[in-house]
Amino acid sequence: MSIEAALLCAVDPVGLGGVALRAPPGPERDAWLAGFRALLGDTPWRRIPPDLSDNRLLGGLDLTATLALGRPVAEAGVLAAVDGGVLVIAMAERMAAATAARIAGVIDAREVTVAREGVALHVPTRFCTILLDEGIEADEIAPAALLDRLAFHAQPMALPPPESVQAARALLPSVTVPDAILDALVAAAAALGIASPRAVLLTLAAARAAAALDGDAQVDEDHAALATRLVLGPRATIAPPAEEPQDEPPPPEPPPPDQPPPSDDDAPMPSPEQLQELLLAAAAANLPPDLLDRAKIQALAARTAGGRGDAARARANGGRPIGARPGEPRGDARLAVLDTLRAAAPWQALRTPPPGARTALRREDPRSRRFHRRNETTAIFAVDASGSAAVNRLAEAKGAVELLLAEAYVRRDRVALIGFRGTAAEVLLPPTQALARAKRGLAGLPGGGTTPLASGIDAATALALVERRAGRAALVILLTDGRGNIARDGGQGHARATVDALDAARQLRAAGIAAILLDTAPRAQPAARTLAEAAGAIYLPMPMADATRMSRAASAAAATLRPAGR
After folding, report:
1. What is the DSSP-derived secondary structure letter of residue 151?
2. Which of 185, 175, 170, 75 shows the shortest CA–CA distance to 120?
3. Which end is more exposed in the chain, N or C (fewer Cβ atoms within 10 Å of the end residue's Cβ)?
4. Which residues of 418-443 are buried (b: 16+ CB within 10 A; e: fewer)?
5. What is the DSSP string of 450-500?
6. What is the Cα 5 distance to its own chain's centre?
């Protein structure tokens, strides 16, 4: 796939936006980059880190020249300098959302606009972007604002020689697209759950580049299918609908002996329905793994966004620098020296510095540094430890906890485990980041007995509220088939237990706590789905409990509780 993406992007680098290359550093990625660079010939390249400052990225005040001349002097940034070339963003998965938004704005406007610190810049710029995404986990991805603007999301493979794209570039401006194919691309994007119109435009550009590579002046269904597979497939949020079985059409009648068979060039364009089915089949060959789980978990972000307004709060000290604010430093805040000098520099011609000083500062000049400290997340597993399947459920839950804890030192996440059996729920593992402690606490956990489902949900809610009061986001993962038989007061009876469990689930939802319910029954249970709806939880049937899938679902859901781009 990356070979085709590179060839198409080399034909129309600006129109297709670029390539998001997801791979760790190594020979394969280096070879792909070298091959793509060879395809582009003498096109200039600029490589930037993910945390480049706005002044270097967009341009702004040249502090040295301004202080020397006594008047504002503008300096262009990297995005202006890369005009006509390729911008390579290293470690793109670490780029802040704000930085990505600024780059995305320049890609859209095809112009760098700066108006601050007494200077104004308007510099046209057009470039191709290569995102080097080195993320390992599913939630370690480049910012969505940039991914949406790049046609291709690929993994590196060896590339063909550069001569293969020269003729295609010359032919590209004259390539046309039939209306039927354009309509089918729009319909395919809608069927795949892709809302962004930019994805359709990028698919259209990819189809035109594919036709140019084949030496064709018009896009056909094969070019559209290739573009759909490369561009729409990785962006799909829902699987295409399954085709209904159809009767085999009768074989065509043979032509008369004196009539030659029709050539391929005379073949009619497929009907709109056939064309859409062809494109959806092509997209299905390149759908993201775990598409259903991922789509459901992404919905969690919309449901919990209102409850995490302070997740990206700025701190006076500690964390990652995120710029400066006007005003003198107060408390333990630090003075932003360069930003203070930039604020004062444009006014030096109108000010008289004090004796022995070269710069005159006023009370309105000081700037204070701002920092961002990422919120921690606590994943609380509430496991049904009752019944004959308890041993397997507990074993896989332990495995999921250990897998999540292995990542905790990077993300500062915590993991807790609650088991409910008999007549009560018990916190088997308090929130922790310590893997060794967790393994000791998880060893030899009991299982079997009746199912106090309401008590388990209540215990998870209470622990989540404690974590939230401590400033940590909380995520509850319920492992159950949704069928309780012990009420809150310890009384037996399925009907009372169900009423209490639904009431506990509604309280969990009312508290604004994000949740996932993993249905561990051999077949999906209506009771579990109803319980998930009452709790406002994502419902994922998981008849074969699997530690890896559990931890992956929890990691992806926890990522929705973090600020974008972190």
Report:
1. S
2. 75
3. C
4. bbbbbbebbbbbebbbebeebeebbe
5. ---HHHHHHHHHHHHHHHHHTT-EEEEEEEE-S---B-TTS-B-HHHHHHH
6. 20
Q: Residue 294 contacts by C-beta under 8 Å, 6 or more apart in sequence?
A: 138, 237, 288, 556
Residue reference for tokens 């604020």: 343
Gap between the Cα atoms of 417 and 478, Å rounded: 10
Percent helix, percent strand, percent coil in the chain, to nearest 5: 45, 20, 35
Polymer length of the chain: 566
Give the DSSP letter of residue 231. Answer: I
- In the predicted structure, residue 235 carries a pLDDT above the cut 60: yes
Q: What percent of the chain has pLDDT over 90?
A: 21
- Per the CB < 8 A criterion, the answer to whether 129 and 15 are in contact is no
Q: How far apart are CA 208 and CA 220, in angstroms?
A: 9
- pLDDT score recorded for residue 378: 86
Q: What pLDDT digit, counting tens, does each position of 495-527 carry?
A: 999 999 999 999 999 998 988 888 877 777 788
User: Strand, helix or coil at 189?
Assistant: helix
Please give the Cα distance from 399 to 550 (Å, whole number).
Answer: 9
Question: What are 239's two structure tokens?
Answer: 């699987």
Token representation of residue 335:
């003075």
Which CATH topology does 2-172 take?
Rossmann fold (3.40.50)
335 forms bridges with which residues in the sheet?
368
pTM higher than 0.70 for the full model?
no
CATH 3.30.200.20 is held by the domain 377-560? no
Least confident of 89-93, 125-129, 339-343, 373-377: 373-377
Task: Of 71-75, 270-274, 383-387, 497-501, give the lowest mean pLDDT range.
Answer: 270-274
What would be the CATH architecture of the domain defined by 175-236+273-287?
Orthogonal Bundle (1.10)
For residues 543 and 519, is the Cβ–Cβ distance under 8 A?
yes
Q: Which residue has the tokens 């400033």?
A: 471
Closest CA to 205 of 217, 187, 223, 191: 223
Report whether pLDDT(164) > 70: no
Q: Mean pLDDT across the chain, nearest whole number? A: 78
Query: What ranges do the domains of the chain cover?
Result: 2-172, 175-236+273-287, 377-560
Same topology between domain 2-172 and domain 175-236+273-287:
no
Nearest CA among 30, 175, 146, 11 for reference residue 87: 146
The token pair at 40 is 């582009």
pLDDT of residue 535: 92
Give the mean pLDDT of 121-143: 86
On whether the CB atoms of residues 84 and 44 are closer than 8 A, the answer is: yes
**CA-to-CA distance for 411 and 405, rounded, in angstroms?**
10
**Comparing C-alpha atoms, which of 26, 508, 565, 17 is closest to residue 307?**
508
d(CA 326, CA 53): 18
Q: Which residue has the tokens 């259209």?
A: 204
Rg, Å, the chain Cα set:
29
